[in-house]
Amino acid sequence: MPNWVQRESEKKPENKISQYSPVIYQILANRGISSHKQIQSFLKPSLKNLHNPEKLPHIDKATKRMLEAINNKEKILIFGDYDADGVVSVGLIYNFLKQLGLDVDTYIPSRFDEGYDISLKFVKSLDKQKKYNLLICVDCGTNSRQVIDFVEKGSSSFDVIVCDHHEPTEESDHIQSDRYLIINPKLSPSKYPFRQLSGAGVTFKFIVNMLRRADTPVRNRFGPGYLTQLLDLVAISTVADVMPLVDENRIMVKRGLQVMEKTVNRGLAVLLNEALGKKSNLNTYDIGFVIAPRLNSAGRLETATNSLDILKNDCSGVESKVQSLEGFNRKRKKVQEEILEQILGQKDIEKKIVEQKIFVDKSSHWNEGVLGIVASSLVKQFNVPVILFKEKGDKLKGSGRSIDHFNLYEILSSLNHYFEKFGGHQLACGITMHKDKYPAFSRDLVKLASSLISEKQLQKSLKYDVEISLSQINGQLMSQLILLEPYGPGNPKPVFRSKECMIEDIRYLKQGKHVKLKVSQEGTPKEAIFFRISDRVKDTLSKKKKIDMLYCLQENEWNGNKALQLVILDIF
């Protein structure tokens, strides 16, 4: 059984504002929000509170160079990563520059043939063409050391502007160049007050700054609501890249979800209609589990060209491209399930994972495009770090996912002598290495995991915000909980605990996979549902008349009637 742990707040909530329930104040305090000003800013996020883009490093020089390119009608190439954040970033700046009448091309590398980030080989081939005056890299480029050196030495025929959010290496952190300009809030010289923007978030800030600095004829090409209309794409990138939904990310995603329902991006409108129908009140789940997987699917299996094309305002044949993404997504799910089944079918896999406290494996038969998703599934199931490699020739290309107690980037940095390429953050990484180094690498990594991860840390924990009685659950509480949305990293969906609840009725669904309950506490009845129940839960329900519950609250609407429902996470 998972540990039940109550979230703790460093400061007690200030309850002097009586318009909200004490439950709401406690939830906010659990997220570090306790002062009146913080509470009002969080519950009523405003675009006026977005940070000044001029505080981003090198944005002044980059904006000046970009406006020069606009005024001189220079030929521009936009290069971006193949994931949803990269594709959205390319789409954002492409549409902006095309609306100005510029000659712009785009390039998304192949995950399988080229890999992540811009390479010296690509830049040299581009330079030979003498076709472009400016190269814009989005969602990549911070740590492309060979490319940086090539451009800095004056060897390239074009300048480079980078809009990125990845962690800089030590040697990339203090680059001062007039020809290779990196806009990244994580650079050491940065005075930007928020480090956790997505790649498209940085790109959006660059566009904002350009419009602020541009002359009147340039600004007149855009309507008064132009920047706000871009927030639907920024919201997609932020959620897809699992950025924390705090500070200005929260502002942009909350407003972006509203913009999305009436999006002016034709391709996105078609995709939303195909994937979600006429659904209103879009949320982060719709982005993270419906829209983003479709935008990611093409790049995971082939190339991300289709995903980018549907976001371009001048794209034709959008409907067929969206259908193509649907096909890619179905195939992605199948490939992912096959790999997961193969791994789980290994002999003594659970024993091996428990003993090693980490799971590392490789295969020449796996599709590298879905390894990160498979690794995430294994982390969720076993609560250990996971790294999976695709073997191709004498190379291994891998994706890793981790748990809160094991900083994957930090640990792997100590083993980087094994790698040809490596990057990532605390919970995820990408690795390229020679296959001959795999035995020693996996041995050293297992040793580190065994010494750094305790038995207690391997046990799953479920965190809850506050204990409440069922009588406190009503429409007023639900309407105030809605103010806490959107939910995501940094602002998880509130979880409640209620004790000594009587089971009044049990109804199993889907051959016993799910269960609907009627529960009561001191005369207050509530409807509840528990998805994907375990044998332990079935046994508990069959033996006990009273239970303690952890749950979230959900408002369901059926035939015009709204009803509150408890979505149970665990019982005992």
Written overview of the protein:
- This protein is of the alpha/beta class and 572 residues long.
- Helices cover 41% and strands 21% of the residues.
- The strands form four sheets. Strands 3-2-4-5-6 form a five-stranded parallel beta sheet.
- The model has no long low-confidence stretch (mean pLDDT 93).
What's the overall geometry? globular
Q: How many angstroms does the end-to-end distance come to? A: 9 Å
Main β-sheet description: 5 strands, parallel
Strand proportion: 15-25%
Backbone structural class = alpha/beta
What's the mean pLDDT score?
A: 93
Number of strands: 18
DSSP summary: helix tally: 22
Strands ordered across the widest β-sheet: 3-2-4-5-6
Measured on Cα atoms, how large is the radius of gyration? 25 Å
Flag low-confidence runs.
none
- What fraction, in percent, of the residue positions are helical? 40-55%
